[in-house]
Amino acid sequence: MTQPAPIRRAPSGPLLTTALELAALMVPVLPLRAGKVPFGNCRACAGNACGGRPNMKTPGPCHCPRPCHAWAAATTDHAALTGPAWALAWRQTAAVAYHPGGTGLTVVDLDHADAITWARETLPATRTVPTTRGEHWIYRGAMQSANAVRPGVDIKSTMSYARWLGPGIGTMTALPNAVRALAAKGSSMVRPAPRAVTVPGSVGGGECPHRTPAYLDRGIVMAEQRITETTSAVHATVYRTFLAVLSAHGRCGCLTDVHIRRLFAAAQAKGESVRHCNDAWTNALTRLGL
Protein backbone atom coordinates (compact mmCIF):
# COMPACT_ATOMS: atom_id res chain seq x y z
CA MET A 1 0.00 0.00 0.00
CA THR A 2 1.38 3.38 -0.98
CA GLN A 3 2.18 5.56 2.01
CA PRO A 4 0.83 9.12 1.89
CA ALA A 5 3.39 11.82 1.37
CA PRO A 6 4.40 13.57 4.60
CA ILE A 7 2.78 16.91 5.23
CA ARG A 8 5.27 19.75 5.12
CA ARG A 9 4.43 22.29 7.79
CA ALA A 10 5.45 25.88 7.27
CA PRO A 11 7.96 27.16 9.85
CA SER A 12 6.47 29.14 12.71
CA GLY A 13 7.45 30.88 15.92
CA PRO A 14 7.75 34.38 17.38
CA LEU A 15 11.01 35.19 15.57
CA LEU A 16 9.56 34.29 12.18
CA THR A 17 6.43 36.29 13.04
CA THR A 18 8.62 39.30 13.78
CA ALA A 19 10.50 38.79 10.52
CA LEU A 20 7.29 38.60 8.50
CA GLU A 21 5.92 41.75 10.14
CA LEU A 22 9.09 43.62 9.22
CA ALA A 23 9.10 42.22 5.69
CA ALA A 24 5.52 43.42 5.25
CA LEU A 25 6.85 46.92 5.99
CA MET A 26 9.51 46.39 3.26
CA VAL A 27 12.34 45.95 5.77
CA PRO A 28 14.73 43.24 4.46
CA VAL A 29 15.27 40.65 7.20
CA LEU A 30 17.44 37.59 7.85
CA PRO A 31 17.83 35.05 10.66
CA LEU A 32 20.83 35.00 13.00
CA ARG A 33 22.15 31.92 14.76
CA ALA A 34 23.64 31.79 18.25
CA GLY A 35 26.29 34.41 18.75
CA LYS A 36 24.37 36.99 16.68
CA VAL A 37 26.05 35.84 13.45
CA PRO A 38 24.47 34.94 10.09
CA PHE A 39 24.10 31.38 8.87
CA GLY A 40 26.97 30.08 6.80
CA ASN A 41 26.64 29.48 3.09
CA CYS A 42 25.11 26.23 1.92
CA ARG A 43 27.25 23.61 0.14
CA ALA A 44 26.49 25.04 -3.27
CA CYS A 45 27.65 28.49 -2.17
CA ALA A 46 30.45 27.49 0.23
CA GLY A 47 33.65 29.36 -0.47
CA ASN A 48 31.63 31.58 -2.80
CA ALA A 49 31.66 28.75 -5.35
CA CYS A 50 28.42 30.16 -6.74
CA GLY A 51 30.28 33.26 -7.86
CA GLY A 52 28.08 35.60 -5.86
CA ARG A 53 27.46 39.08 -7.13
CA PRO A 54 30.72 40.97 -7.65
CA ASN A 55 29.82 44.27 -6.01
CA MET A 56 27.22 42.92 -3.53
CA LYS A 57 25.49 46.30 -3.24
CA THR A 58 22.01 44.81 -2.98
CA PRO A 59 20.61 41.79 -1.13
CA GLY A 60 20.74 38.46 -2.90
CA PRO A 61 24.23 37.91 -4.35
CA CYS A 62 23.12 34.75 -6.21
CA HIS A 63 19.95 32.82 -7.01
CA CYS A 64 20.33 30.37 -4.12
CA PRO A 65 16.98 30.05 -2.30
CA ARG A 66 18.67 29.47 1.09
CA PRO A 67 19.59 32.16 3.63
CA CYS A 68 23.16 32.39 2.33
CA HIS A 69 25.71 35.21 2.04
CA ALA A 70 25.19 36.84 5.44
CA TRP A 71 23.60 40.33 5.20
CA ALA A 72 22.94 39.85 1.49
CA ALA A 73 20.40 37.14 2.32
CA ALA A 74 18.08 39.79 3.77
CA THR A 75 14.76 39.75 1.96
CA THR A 76 11.16 40.97 2.12
CA ASP A 77 9.89 37.97 0.11
CA HIS A 78 7.21 36.22 2.17
CA ALA A 79 7.49 33.05 0.08
CA ALA A 80 11.23 32.84 0.66
CA LEU A 81 10.96 33.51 4.39
CA THR A 82 8.34 30.81 4.90
CA GLY A 83 9.57 28.37 2.25
CA PRO A 84 11.26 25.01 2.85
CA ALA A 85 14.73 26.35 2.02
CA TRP A 86 14.62 28.61 5.11
CA ALA A 87 12.76 26.18 7.41
CA LEU A 88 15.84 24.64 9.05
CA ALA A 89 17.38 28.06 9.61
CA TRP A 90 14.29 29.30 11.44
CA ARG A 91 14.37 26.26 13.74
CA GLN A 92 17.94 27.22 14.70
CA THR A 93 17.44 31.00 14.76
CA ALA A 94 18.43 32.91 17.88
CA ALA A 95 17.54 36.43 16.68
CA VAL A 96 16.24 38.43 13.73
CA ALA A 97 18.37 40.99 11.91
CA TYR A 98 17.68 43.47 9.16
CA HIS A 99 19.62 45.24 6.43
CA PRO A 100 19.42 48.96 7.35
CA GLY A 101 20.74 50.21 4.02
CA GLY A 102 18.16 48.08 2.21
CA THR A 103 15.37 50.10 3.76
CA GLY A 104 17.10 53.49 3.55
CA LEU A 105 18.34 53.65 7.15
CA THR A 106 21.62 54.01 9.01
CA VAL A 107 22.24 52.61 12.49
CA VAL A 108 24.88 54.20 14.70
CA ASP A 109 25.78 51.35 17.06
CA LEU A 110 26.93 52.73 20.42
CA ASP A 111 28.56 49.91 22.35
CA HIS A 112 28.98 51.38 25.83
CA ALA A 113 28.11 54.29 28.14
CA ASP A 114 31.00 56.49 27.01
CA ALA A 115 29.92 56.14 23.37
CA ILE A 116 26.36 57.07 24.29
CA THR A 117 27.58 60.15 26.15
CA TRP A 118 29.62 61.18 23.12
CA ALA A 119 26.61 60.75 20.81
CA ARG A 120 24.35 62.83 23.04
CA GLU A 121 26.91 65.62 23.00
CA THR A 122 27.71 65.40 19.29
CA LEU A 123 24.89 63.99 17.16
CA PRO A 124 21.32 65.21 16.60
CA ALA A 125 18.69 63.31 18.57
CA THR A 126 16.86 60.56 16.69
CA ARG A 127 15.09 57.27 17.35
CA THR A 128 16.98 55.12 19.85
CA VAL A 129 16.83 51.41 20.60
CA PRO A 130 18.37 49.93 23.78
CA THR A 131 20.88 47.11 23.16
CA THR A 132 22.59 44.66 25.51
CA ARG A 133 25.46 47.06 26.23
CA GLY A 134 24.44 50.38 24.70
CA GLU A 135 22.06 51.88 22.13
CA HIS A 136 21.28 51.96 18.43
CA TRP A 137 20.64 55.44 17.05
CA ILE A 138 18.65 55.16 13.81
CA TYR A 139 18.64 57.83 11.11
CA ARG A 140 16.77 58.18 7.80
CA GLY A 141 19.19 57.82 4.91
CA ALA A 142 21.69 55.18 3.83
CA MET A 143 25.48 55.30 3.57
CA GLN A 144 28.52 53.02 3.44
CA SER A 145 28.92 51.01 6.64
CA ALA A 146 32.07 51.41 8.74
CA ASN A 147 33.36 49.72 11.88
CA ALA A 148 35.23 51.33 14.77
CA VAL A 149 34.85 54.89 13.52
CA ARG A 150 35.66 55.89 17.10
CA PRO A 151 35.87 53.90 20.36
CA GLY A 152 32.69 51.88 20.80
CA VAL A 153 31.00 53.25 17.66
CA ASP A 154 30.11 51.33 14.48
CA ILE A 155 28.00 52.49 11.54
CA LYS A 156 25.67 49.89 10.02
CA SER A 157 23.89 50.70 6.79
CA THR A 158 24.64 49.30 3.32
CA MET A 159 26.33 45.89 3.12
CA SER A 160 25.76 45.27 6.82
CA TYR A 161 23.09 44.04 9.22
CA ALA A 162 21.76 45.08 12.60
CA ARG A 163 19.93 42.98 15.13
CA TRP A 164 16.23 43.81 15.44
CA LEU A 165 15.59 44.82 19.06
CA GLY A 166 12.29 46.60 18.65
CA PRO A 167 11.02 49.83 17.07
CA GLY A 168 12.68 52.09 19.62
CA ILE A 169 11.54 55.46 20.89
CA GLY A 170 11.75 59.01 19.59
CA THR A 171 11.37 60.63 16.19
CA MET A 172 13.67 59.42 13.46
CA THR A 173 15.64 62.28 11.90
CA ALA A 174 17.60 62.66 8.68
CA LEU A 175 21.11 61.24 8.50
CA PRO A 176 23.42 64.10 9.53
CA ASN A 177 26.66 65.01 7.83
CA ALA A 178 28.40 64.40 11.15
CA VAL A 179 27.75 60.66 10.80
CA ARG A 180 28.90 60.59 7.18
CA ALA A 181 32.06 62.40 8.22
CA LEU A 182 32.68 59.75 10.87
CA ALA A 183 32.88 57.05 8.21
CA ALA A 184 35.34 59.09 6.16
CA LYS A 185 37.56 59.61 9.20
CA GLY A 186 37.05 56.08 10.42
CA SER A 187 38.49 54.60 7.24
CA SER A 188 41.94 55.64 8.47
CA MET A 189 41.37 53.71 11.70
CA VAL A 190 41.14 50.38 9.91
CA ARG A 191 44.00 50.97 7.51
CA PRO A 192 47.14 48.95 8.23
CA ALA A 193 50.60 50.44 8.30
CA PRO A 194 51.73 51.82 4.93
CA ARG A 195 54.06 48.88 4.25
CA ALA A 196 51.01 46.62 4.22
CA VAL A 197 50.12 47.87 0.78
CA THR A 198 53.50 48.85 -0.65
CA VAL A 199 54.62 45.28 -1.19
CA PRO A 200 57.18 44.26 -3.83
CA GLY A 201 56.02 44.06 -7.41
CA SER A 202 55.73 40.79 -9.32
CA VAL A 203 58.99 39.27 -10.46
CA GLY A 204 57.89 38.89 -14.06
CA GLY A 205 57.17 42.59 -14.42
CA GLY A 206 54.07 41.96 -16.52
CA GLU A 207 50.42 42.58 -15.72
CA CYS A 208 49.38 40.99 -12.45
CA PRO A 209 47.02 38.04 -13.09
CA HIS A 210 45.32 38.64 -9.74
CA ARG A 211 43.78 41.89 -10.89
CA THR A 212 40.97 39.99 -12.58
CA PRO A 213 37.81 40.00 -10.41
CA ALA A 214 37.38 36.27 -10.91
CA TYR A 215 40.50 35.60 -8.82
CA LEU A 216 41.29 38.48 -6.50
CA ASP A 217 37.72 39.46 -5.59
CA ARG A 218 36.71 35.86 -4.99
CA GLY A 219 39.73 35.39 -2.76
CA ILE A 220 38.80 38.42 -0.67
CA VAL A 221 35.18 37.26 -0.37
CA MET A 222 36.35 33.80 0.73
CA ALA A 223 38.65 35.38 3.32
CA GLU A 224 35.83 37.56 4.66
CA GLN A 225 33.58 34.52 4.87
CA ARG A 226 36.22 32.45 6.68
CA ILE A 227 36.49 35.15 9.35
CA THR A 228 32.74 35.74 9.58
CA GLU A 229 31.85 32.07 9.97
CA THR A 230 34.43 31.19 12.62
CA THR A 231 32.89 30.35 15.99
CA SER A 232 36.08 29.93 18.03
CA ALA A 233 39.74 30.97 18.08
CA VAL A 234 38.91 34.24 16.35
CA HIS A 235 42.40 35.72 16.90
CA ALA A 236 44.08 32.72 15.30
CA THR A 237 41.59 32.60 12.43
CA VAL A 238 42.14 36.27 11.61
CA TYR A 239 45.91 35.82 11.57
CA ARG A 240 45.77 32.66 9.43
CA THR A 241 43.37 34.33 7.01
CA PHE A 242 45.57 37.42 6.66
CA LEU A 243 48.55 35.12 6.13
CA ALA A 244 46.72 33.18 3.41
CA VAL A 245 45.68 36.37 1.59
CA LEU A 246 49.20 37.78 1.69
CA SER A 247 50.67 34.45 0.58
CA ALA A 248 48.50 34.57 -2.53
CA HIS A 249 48.48 38.30 -3.27
CA GLY A 250 51.17 39.99 -1.17
CA ARG A 251 54.03 39.93 -3.66
CA CYS A 252 52.32 41.14 -6.81
CA GLY A 253 51.11 44.51 -5.58
CA CYS A 254 47.46 43.88 -6.43
CA LEU A 255 46.08 44.39 -2.91
CA THR A 256 44.59 47.84 -2.35
CA ASP A 257 43.44 49.75 0.71
CA VAL A 258 39.87 48.80 -0.20
CA HIS A 259 40.67 45.07 -0.04
CA ILE A 260 42.53 45.42 3.25
CA ARG A 261 39.80 47.53 4.86
CA ARG A 262 37.30 44.82 3.92
CA LEU A 263 39.38 42.20 5.73
CA PHE A 264 39.81 44.45 8.77
CA ALA A 265 36.08 45.20 8.83
CA ALA A 266 35.26 41.48 8.82
CA ALA A 267 37.65 40.92 11.73
CA GLN A 268 36.27 43.87 13.70
CA ALA A 269 32.73 42.59 13.17
CA LYS A 270 33.84 39.48 15.08
CA GLY A 271 35.04 41.65 17.97
CA GLU A 272 38.69 42.16 17.02
CA SER A 273 40.23 45.51 17.87
CA VAL A 274 41.96 47.75 15.34
CA ARG A 275 45.21 47.15 17.22
CA HIS A 276 44.89 43.39 16.93
CA CYS A 277 44.09 43.66 13.22
CA ASN A 278 47.22 45.74 12.67
CA ASP A 279 49.30 43.32 14.74
CA ALA A 280 47.98 40.28 12.86
CA TRP A 281 48.62 41.94 9.51
CA THR A 282 52.14 43.02 10.49
CA ASN A 283 52.96 39.56 11.84
CA ALA A 284 51.77 37.96 8.62
CA LEU A 285 53.94 40.33 6.58
CA THR A 286 56.93 39.52 8.77
CA ARG A 287 56.30 35.79 8.50
CA LEU A 288 56.35 36.05 4.70
CA GLY A 289 59.31 38.41 4.61
CA LEU A 290 57.35 41.23 2.97
What does this structure look like?
With 290 residues, the chain is an alpha+beta fold. It has helices at 14-24, 78-82, 84-91, 113-122, 177-186, 216-229, 234-249, 257-269, 274-288, and strands spanning 29-33, 37-38, 95-98, 105-110, 127-130, 135-140, 146-150, 153-156, 162-163, 173-174. It has three domains: 14-97, no CATH class; 101-186, Bifunctional DNA primase/polymerase domain (Prim-pol fold); 194-288, no CATH class. The strands form two sheets. Strands 4, 5, 6, 7, 8 and 10 form a six-stranded mixed β-sheet that branches. A four-stranded antiparallel β-sheet has the order 2-1-3-9. It starts with 13 loop residues before the first helix and ends with a helix.
Structure summary:
The chain has 290 residues and is α+β, with helices and mostly antiparallel strands. The chain is built from 9 helices and 10 strands. The chain folds into 3 domains: 14-97, no CATH class; 101-186, Bifunctional DNA primase/polymerase domain (Prim-pol fold, 2-Layer Sandwich), CATH 3.30.2250.10; 194-288, no CATH class.
Count of spatially separate domains = 3
Helix content: 25-40%
Largest pleated sheet: 6 strands, mixed
Indicate the proportion of strand residues.
5-15%
Write the layout of secondary structure elements.
Elements: H1 14-24, E1 29-33, E2 37-38, H2 78-82, H3 84-91, E3 95-98, E4 105-110, H4 113-122, E5 127-130, E6 135-140, E7 146-150, E8 153-156, E9 162-163, E10 173-174, H5 177-186, H6 216-229, H7 234-249, H8 257-269, H9 274-288
Parallel strand pairs: 6-10
Antiparallel strand pairs: 1-2, 1-3, 3-9, 4-6, 4-8, 5-6, 7-8
